[in-house]
Amino acid sequence: MSFVDTLRQWDEGVTSFERQDISEALGIFQSIKEPNSKIYFNIGCLHLLNQDLEAAEKAFDCSIGKDEHLAIAFFQRGITFYRDKRYEESLADFQKAYKALRGNQLIDYKALGLRYILYACEVLHNVALLEAHMGNWEKAQENLAKALNYKTDAKLNIMDRALQSILKQNLFTPVEFPTKRLFKPNKHYVAELEKKDYLGKAKVVASVVPKDDFSGFAPLQPQVEDDPACPKEPEVFRALEGDPHTVLFEFVPETSDELAVVPGNIVFVLQKGADNWASVVFNERRGLVPYNYLEHLEISSASKKNAAVTPPPTREPPTRPERIQGLTPSDNSEGNTQVKEGPTNSLCIVKIHHTFNFSVSLPLGSPYDLLMEEIGRKLNVPSTAVTLRLTAEACAGNAIDEKTEMEKVWGRANSGRFTLWCSIQEQTDEKPQSETHLVALHSYGSSNPEDLCFQAGDTITLLSRVNKEWLEGSCNGNTGIFPSSFVEEVPVNRNVNKSN
């Protein structure tokens, strides 16, 4: 089966699934003669929807056989084993999924056609659950403690609830893959499946040649009986902005002003900085690329006429250069590219060690109050409750307060980074704080286990504020997070009727 046929059937199967016709989608996927790992993954997910655990296991086996680094396939096979109460095999697959993450906090599969993000903290959450099922409560607690180093703002509550259950030696609900997600084929490839002729066939309206019935789009020329006309010389190629270069190594950007390129791409260098970074243009996009990843390219009429694709190099790419001043590409009103230098008061990244690690970005040399305010905002506590230290040991010589000379603190920065430690002092108030109640303006439903579902008009007790967009609360005996835009606070003088 050709790639085009596979692509067409893949797209038809996804379309049937989106129409909620699972049996038709499954039949289309299974009729593909040589499925890739993503199609096998889709087949496994459809078998899981049909509660056919044996068929789902075989499909995920094939998916992993095609791509042994597909972490989400290990994750789904682990869910399959868990539903079949094969806990040891399920634990092994979740551990393999975590290993396939390679120390990353998450894998976003959007670029591969799957709208899903696999978080390391969720994988470790399931590892801890399987250890608990087998009675290994200490190992379960160790895995949850490891998960806290990977957790994000949106995953805080599910980790905390799982840890509380482990401390009480209670089981909890696993994190599962959403049932309505499948790998989709590349939309650009699908758009090219059906070629359409929008121009049609040209018809001769007037010609210098009598009774000329030529059709097509080549320019008409007078016919002569003498020697054949010499072919025209190639037109002068339009001058392109910048100096052409060939990309030798794949470059993965780490900041928003850098540009992703792969071996074989042709980029046009607009300016080369003193720090070995070059501002380039590629596919009408501008960004920064290390100059030692590029090779100058001579373009002539002959080379364009008989262009050959140079195979990518096999040697290792050079070391990524340090950003000193950092060329920043920007567009002016005329569309020409200018290159400006970065600000002199560059940002410094401060890594903070707490019960979990996080970082804040501040201008180098910021005052003490600004640093404490930013840390307090990250931890969602008053800055007065935060104690900051230079080292992990809590002693008087390491404490940072309003009397500390901040020049010495910022002087610890190396390449715009340094590390501090902090702890939070519990605030004791004589007057107990009253509960804050919210009323649901709209109904909210979600398949994520950490979310709180409710109906319009329900009353919710506010537990904490995750960030500006998400809150944590309890309603109808359930606890979870929900969007803040779905609720409003109940005034103090208003009678509250809690939903039961």
Structure annotation, total helices: 13
CATH superfamily of the largest domain: Tetratricopeptide repeat domain
SSE-based structural type: alpha+beta
Rg (C-alpha, Å): 31 Å
CATH second-level architecture of the largest domain: Alpha Horseshoe
User: CATH top level of the largest domain?
Assistant: Mainly Alpha
Total domain units: 4
How would you sum up this structure, described in words?
The chain is of the alpha+beta class and 500 residues long. The protein folds into four domains: 3-167, Serine Threonine Protein Phosphatase 5, Tetratricopeptide repeat (Alpha Horseshoe), CATH 1.25.40; 240-298 and 338-342, SH3 Domains (SH3 type barrels, Roll), CATH 2.30.30.40; 347-424, Phosphatidylinositol 3-kinase Catalytic Subunit, Chain A, domain 1 (Ubiquitin-like (UB roll), Roll); 436-489, SH3 Domains (SH3 type barrels, Roll), CATH 2.30.30. Helices cover 29% and strands 20% of the residues. The chain has helices spanning 3-18, 22-30, 37-49, 53-66, 71-83, 87-100, 120-133, 137-148, 156-167, 187-191, 301-305, 368-379, 406-410, and strands at 106-108, 117-119, 243-247, 266-272, 277-282, 285-290, 294-296, 327-331, 337-341, 347-353, 357-363, 386-389, 399-400, 417-424, 436-440, 459-465, 470-475, 478-483, 487-489. The strands form five sheets. The chain has a five-stranded antiparallel sheet, with no helix packed on it. Strands 11-10-14-12-13 form a five-stranded mixed sheet, with helices on one face. Strand 5 (277-282) and strand 6 (285-290) form a beta hairpin. Helix 4 runs antiparallel to helix 5 (71-83) and helix 7 (120-133) runs antiparallel to helix 8. The longest helix has 16 residues, at 3-18. The chain is globular. The two termini are 58 Å apart.
